[in-house]
Amino acid sequence: MRSIAFINQKGGVGKTTSTANIGAFLTLFGKRVLLIDLDPQANLSLHYGVDIHSRGLSIYQIIIGTNKPDEVVRKTQIDGLDLIPSNIDLASAEIELVNTVGRETVIKFNLENFLYKYDYVLIDCPPSLGLLTLNALTIVQEIIIPLQTEYFALQGVSKLFQTFEVIKKRLNEQLEITGIIPCMYDSRTNLGHEVLDKIKEYFEDKVFNTAIRKNIKLSESPSHGMPIMSYAPDSNGAKDYTALTKEIVDQEENLFKTAIRQTA
Ligand SMILES: Nc1ncnc2c1ncn2[C@@H]1O[C@H](COP(=O)(O)OP(=O)(O)O)[C@@H](O)[C@H]1O
Ligand SMILES: [Mg+2]
Fold first, then answer.
1. Which ligand is nearest the CA of 210, by number?
2. pTM for the predicted model, two decimal places
3. Is the CB of 218 under 6 A from ligand 1?
4. Residue ID of nearest Cα to ligand 1 atom 3
């Protein structure tokens, strides 16, 4: 099983779009996938047509321990893709968690045993480095950072790295940053090229070869409650996320080798 948190404390950089669409395309590689929406704004849940105003069961009930994951998880319209949705109830969890013993590991404690039936668990994090994000970082092995390919792309990245280092040292020594996704790339502008070069200079080989181009279909698909794979399978958005997903699947071999080396 691979578990990956999509993290960037900035909003609007492509976390949710990446989580939603990579999740869908992974099923085409024969993977069983669980998506977890950890953002109170519940955009990932909207992507899969969940009625977030009905206040149905969500990750919130798992956090407070009133419901088990198998009561909360739901199937999506994509075969092999399940979702633990969020809703606005989650906004109060961050505050409620503050006074909880083991507050960074509550989600791990309540969810961990449920995850093993999946090949991939993808967590869409809120745009902050608060307790919900810290909880995500204690449960996953990997971090993928989506960056908006624009002028301020690298702003805030050092803070994100600090948080990663602290969590790795204190709570989750397995944690690794396994990829950077350049999102909303505009190949027609000089700025687009310059920023992409800068990102590659900074993160070197961590940057995926596939940059996700700006594509209107990607921004339309959530309002139709569908990932790009169903909404516009021939779009550039679908092509880019397919190529990116293939890169992610191709990482398996190396990760497997590293794991063997560590246990040897
Ligand atoms: N490659 C893209 N091209 C066009 N619009 C995009 C692209 N990626 C994301 N968007 C849109 O930009 C907005 C922010 O993206 P989102 O994935 O929700 O970011 P985050 O989860 O980091 O806040 C959304 O409206 C989304 O539909
Ligand atoms: Mg989001």
1. 1
2. 0.96
3. yes
4. 214
